[in-house]
Every structure is written in C-alpha cells, then in structure tokens.
From TrEMBL:
Organism: marine metagenome
UniProt cross-references to InterPro entries, sorted A to Z: Ergot_Alk_Oxidoreductase, NAD(P)-bd_dom, NAD(P)-bd_dom_sf
Classification via Pfam families: NAD_binding_10
UniProt domain NAD(P)-binding: residue ranges: 6-140
Protein name (Swiss-Prot/TrEMBL): NAD(P)-binding domain-containing protein
Length: 146
C-alpha cells in the first residue's frame, strides 16, 4: 500500500492517476474533504485531515509500505515533514519518496532550500529507504498562463 500526501495537487494527482491506471492500491492524506471524490473516483482511499493530528497520521500510515511526501512550501513544512517521517518509522513504512527542490544543496542559504536540506537529512538518518526527487520545473505550471 502506498500513501500519498498532496494527492489533490497537480503533481500528486498525476501520481494518483498513474497508480490507479496500474491498479496499485493507495491512500491519500488530504486536507480538503470536498476533494475526497477525486481520490475515490481513482479507486484510492482518502483520509481527510492533517499531519498535525497524530491519531489520524497513524491511521493513514497503517499497512503502508511506501509513501510520497509532497507538501507545499510553508513555514511549517520542515516540522510537518519531520513529524510525518517519525510516524512512518514508527509504522514500519519501508520507503519514503520526498519531493524536494533542485536548490536543496548543503550550501543553500535561502529558507525554503534549507528546509528541504534539513528534511532530506532527517529522512536519510531515519533508517528508511528513501528517494529524493529534485525537480526543476513542471510544464503543468504553464497551463494557467496559456
């Protein structure tokens, strides 16, 4: 079982669609209940709530082998990602895939890239198998300007 965060956003939704196309079971931790139907229509299991809710997070991670950690950049991003990873370790998740940033380098000085570096290090030190995705740009970002 795979758990996706950010499954109702542009990137996360594409991941959910691909999982659905290959009949791979998944859960999606989403914040907005009105978007739950997007997940159920794909055959996924929506879990509505926040990473800040320990009970809900533990429920979401139950029976999960792999996760996609895809959170929006925010002041809380680092603490939320650390909380998620710690809960994943406790739930015996095997592998976490984190959507990071190409600017997340050890010498980064700007706030957002530094948060990604710290989150990556937390994941690397967690004992979980990990994959860091460091995109540069998504063509979908151009769709709104067309």
């Amino acid at each position: 079982m795979i758990l996706i965060t950010g499954a109702t956003g542009k990137t996360g939704y594409e991941v959910a669609k691909n999982l659905s196309e290959f009949s791979i079971p998944f859960k999606a931790l989403i914040r907005n209940a009105t978007k739950a139907s997007q997940i159920t229509e794909l055959g996924g299991q929506p879990i509505i709530g926040s990473i800040e809710d320990d009970d809900l997070l533990n429920q979401a991670l139950e029976g999960v082998d792999k996760t996609l950690l895809l959170l929006p950049n925010s002041e809380q991003q680092l603490s939320l990602e650390k909380r998620f990873v710690d809960a994943a370790v406790k739930a015996e998740v095997k592998h976490v895939v984190k959507m990071s940033s190409m600017e997340a380098l050890p010498e980064a000085t700007r706030t957002i890239p530094r948060m990604h570096v710290e989150s990556e290090n937390h994941i690397k030190n967690s004992g979980l198998l990990w994959t860091m995705i460091k995109p540069n740009f998504f063509m979908q970002n151009l769709l709104g300007s067309g």
